[in-house]
Every structure is written in C-alpha cells, then in structure tokens.
C-alpha cells in the first residue's frame, strides 16, 4: 500500500496513480529477501546515543558529537552528502523558524526498534520555503553502539485527508487499547505484513488480499483514501497504469506496529515507500504511508542510493 499523492513528481502521473490498479496481467517477483533484525536488546543504548548526538548539536559541542559517530558514516538521504560534516552543519545551522515534532505513538515513546535499527517519525517545518513534511528516519547503529547509517523518507503533508484522520496521528479503539506482544508475535506480524504486500502487489491480487487479510474497519491515514476496504479497491480499480512491484528492503516491528521500507517500481518511475501497518488478531487494521520519488543517480549527493 502506498500514498498515491506523492508517488511521482508529475501531477499528471499522480492523478493516474490515484486510479491505478494492481490487478493487471503483470506479476512481479515475490520478495522474501529483506533485512529484518529481531528483538529489542539494544534499544536503550541506541536511543541514548541518538539523544547524545542531538544534545551535542544543540550545544554545538563537536567533540561530544563525534563521540557517538561511527566511521565511516553511511548516508542514504537524497538531501545530504556522505559523512558526518553535512549532518553537523545541518544540526548547528537550522534556519529561524525550523521546527521538528517527533510522533510519540510510534513504537514506545516515539521510537520503533529491532536489533541495531531505530526508527522515528516526525513532522518537520524546514523554514526554507518548502511545505511542512512527514519524515521517517531509519537509523542503524554498529556493534559498538555508534551511529553508523541513516535513511530518511519524506513527503509534504496534505492540507486535508479524505478520512479526516491525521497523516501522522493515531486514534480509536486500537490506540486506546494498547497491546504488549511478545517478540515471537512481532515476527508473526512481520510475516503477515510482508505476505499482504506480496499478494496485493507482486502477485497482482489486491482485492483478494484485502478481503482475506484486512479488517473491514480498516483505519486509513493515506490522505486520498477513506477508511475501510472498499475505498482501497475503488481507487485502484481503473488500471490506468501498470502494476507496481514491491522490492522490500527493511522491516522493523514493535508490538502491533510493522514498518516496511520498500523500493516500489512501475513504468511511471521508482519511489521510496514506507508503509506503517498495525496488525491485530492476524489482520491489518490501520495504515500510514510516506512516499518519495527516487532521484536519478546523477542527482544524488552520494553513491549510496536511497536503499
């Protein structure tokens, strides 16, 4: 599942994507090759390191900042060159009016983690003339706990959503009734999310996958789709673009929340897509997404790619 609004940079193509279908004759390869670390043994260490880096930036203490830094530091953001200096420069040279609000419901206290991976979601106003955005940061820490690798995926926030739900918020019976799943159940939930993406998109069986794996009371945070199953079917019903291929790269889970980062390809282009899915009782019950077009290699500030 993906956010149709920012699926490509062309507004004409965006419109066609809103009406696209995954039930075409094209079938993509099933994807079972992705990085998915388990457990939460390093959560506290990773959060502590990240917060120390933020504090060092706020106090402009370069020595403390470099104490948390792995060398080399691998950057996948399409906005920053490789290495630590661009990150430092960004932290200490924020324009007046810059703001960043961490989304605290994601994971526990705003952090989703597995193994050496830590994820957070934010609403950011860069105060540089660009619209406010929703951003997911994916961070990897090395075996010594140092901050080693970073991905971010961003998308401008919409002024209104069809469902009237916030693009970055959560509410309702699932949020109001939290669960405390075991690591074993988290791994099962990952498999449910991956199976859905494979069946719906790579096998081109969106309607069947929705009927079998998604709750009728599905809560939708994509700004262009209403709640429930039928609106998803309707918006993908016309078949005006080819089927989408999901190349799943990273999967992170905590309790009932699964975050999947994928390379999504069609003849319309290539996009970096984050799907955040809530799984309860074996079914998908809530969905958020962030989509960013992948720049051409020549336009990237490094050679690492977005994935």
Structure overview:
With 307 residues, the protein is of the alpha+beta class. The chain has eight helices and eleven strands. The longest helix is centred in the middle third of the chain and has 20 residues. The protein folds into two domains: 167 residues, Nuclear Transport Factor 2, Chain: A, CATH 3.10.450; 118 residues, Nuclear Transport Factor 2, Chain: A (Roll), CATH 3.10.450.50. Helix 6 packs antiparallel against helix 7. The radius of gyration is 19 Å and the shape is globular. A hairpin with a 2-residue loop joins strand 10 and strand 11. Strands 1, 2, 3, 4, 5 and 6 form a six-stranded mixed β-sheet that branches. A five-stranded mixed β-sheet has the order 7-11-10-9-8. The relative contact order is 0.21.
List keywords for this structure.
307 residues, alpha+beta, Nuclear Transport Factor 2, Chain: A, 2 domains
Q: What proportion strand?
A: 25-35%
The name of the CATH topology of the largest domain is Nuclear Transport Factor 2, Chain: A
Major sheet description: 6 strands, mixed
Domains counted in the coordinates: how many? Answer: 2
Task: Write down the Rg.
Answer: 19 Å
The CATH architecture term of the largest domain is Roll
Order of helices and strands: HHHEHEEEEEHHHEHEEEE
Number of helical segments?
8
Query: In CATH, what is the class of the largest domain?
Result: Alpha Beta
Secondary structure class reads alpha+beta
Q: Using the alpha-carbon principal axes, give the shape.
A: globular
